[in-house]
Design brief:
- This protein is an alpha+beta fold.
- It has 1 helix and 2 strands, in the order E-E-H.
- It has a two-stranded antiparallel ribbon.
- The longest helix has 28 residues.
- The chain is elongated and about 55 Å long.
Length: about 80
C-alpha cells in the first residue's frame, strides 16, 4: 500500500548534527555541532545539494574544533 502512495509533503526545514569524541590521556572531549536551515520556497532547490552543504558545514565545524583540541595538547 505504501508503495502506491505519492507524498505531497515538501521539506521546509532541514537539520544536521555532527559529533566527535576524542580521548587524550585519561580525559574525553566531545564536540558537537547542530544547525537547522529553512528551505526557501523557490524553484530549483536541489535537496541533495542542500543536505550535502549542510553536513559539510557542521562536519567542518566539528573537525576544526577537534583539531584545535589536539593541537593544544601538542604544545
Amino acid at each position: 500500500m505504501a508503495n502506491k502512495y505519492v507524498t505531497h509533503a515538501v521539506p521546509t526545514e532541514i537539520s544536521a548534527t555532527s559529533r566527535c569524541a576524542i580521548k587524550i590521556r585519561d580525559n574525553y572531549y566531545t564536540i558537537e555541532a547542530t544547525e537547522k536551515r529553512t528551505i526557501a520556497d523557490v524553484d530549483g532547490v536541489n535537496m541533495d545539494l542542500e543536505y550535502k552543504m549542510l553536513f559539510d558545514e557542521v562536519n567542518g565545524i566539528v573537525d576544526s574544533q577537534c583539531q584545535d583540541i589536539v593541537d593544544n595538547f601538542k604544545k
